[in-house]
Amino acid sequence: MDATIRGTVMQVLEVHLEPGESVIAESGVLGWYDNGIEMTTSSAMGGADGVWDAYKRSFGGSSFFMTRYESTTAPGTVAFPARLPGKIFQIPLGPDRSYLVQQHGFLAGLEGSTLTTAFHPKELGVGLAGGFGFMLQKLEGTGHAWIELSGELSEYDLTPGQELRVHPGHIGLVEGTVDYKLATIPGLKNKFFGNGFFVVKLTGPGKVWLQSFSIPMLVQEIAPFLANASSATSPSSQLETAAVAGGLVAAAKGIGGLLGK
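-> structure tokens emitted (261 positions)
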């Protein structure tokens, strides 16, 4: 198996497989593949043992179905493009190598990769109250996996007991040794007029990867523009737009007439 990460801003993971080798990925992340690759889609992949496990995985932000890309009789290549500008990188898996990854962060992994929800009541509060759909998935197993995070990355190695408080939208990948839980932002003004109500308190030891951007943050940023675009299609908005346009045309003609004198 040979993997190449191509590009700079919008990267692509390209995996070349020899006969008998395979990788798994969530549904919907495929970019392209050649005729040496065969696909199998099922809910019983990535550590899921039946429908209930697949439901739990999807509750954590992953897809209900996963797809295996396998080379059977001839070498083949499959590619997974990034969904946002950012970074794709490889991480090792093993008995002492588990991670918590934000939803949409797992791009692909070897057949031994296991992806489940990291749901606990205290973490659910972070996601619902934080308003960013923040749910972490647990990634473990054997071999290695590829992670996709958005924007620029900041990496921190937390020492035992060291704390870092992070906005939910910026958490990308966390080693399994790091503890995390809900924490409130102090002060009423800070809560209502500052940066929201909640942060996630990360406590070492372990490494964390923080991302400068995320899909939920992108949705939040463009939502007002989508609302404005939707309201602009209403009949009253169209009349207002026409009236404004007519006024601008009349004003332009008036100005043109003055300039022509």
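Residues 133 and 178 are 21 Å apart (CA to CA).
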